[in-house]
Amino acid sequence: MQKLTQTLKALSDQNRLRIVIALMENDELCACQFTELLGIAGATVSRHLGVLHNAELIQFRKEGRWIFYRLNKDIEYPKSLLAWIHEQSETCTEVQQDLIQLQKILSSAPEDICRKQRSACCSD
């Protein structure tokens, strides 16, 4: 019961659900790409990613200074839950807007995104 509760709590936040949906559409994304997509502070994105990781919904790998996240395919997902999320997201305007925005984000290298985010942070 603990695992089920932890999974559902992790998915109950809109930003965390947006992360999972983005990962359902892309094999792997960098933390800076999530920051750009969600339009929130990097520390907040990191906290959301930590919740999803603790619930074992996502995994990460480090490559130099970059951290890349992907859905955890090593656990037995409740396939019907992910299928339902995918089905619901197909008709959700916000999700469709996220996917369009994500394609724009993916056209830039993570280095460029992080450089842009750092300069925006420093100009405040």
| Strand elements, count | 3
What kind of sheet is the major sheet? 3 strands, antiparallel
Might you state the CATH topology name?
Answer: Arc Repressor Mutant, subunit A
- Give the mean pLDDT: 88
For the CA atoms, what is the radius of gyration? 15 Å
Name the CATH class: Mainly Alpha
Question: What order do the helices and strands come in, and which of them pair?
Answer:
Elements: H1 2-11, H2 14-25, E1 29-30, H3 31-38, H4 42-54, E2 58-63, E3 66-71, H5 79-89, H6 93-106, H7 110-122
What's a quick, concise take on this entry?
This protein has helices spanning 2-11, 14-25, 31-38, 42-54, 79-89, 93-106, 110-122; strands spanning 29-30, 58-63, 66-71.
Folded structure, characterized:
One of its GO terms (molecular function) is DNA binding. The protein has 124 residues and is mainly α. The chain contains seven helices and three strands. The protein has a single domain (2-122), classed as Orthogonal Bundle (Arc Repressor Mutant, subunit A). A three-stranded antiparallel beta sheet has the order 1-3-2. A hairpin with a 2-residue loop joins β2 (58-63) and β3 (66-71).
Characteristic terms for this protein:
124 residues, mainly alpha, 3 strands
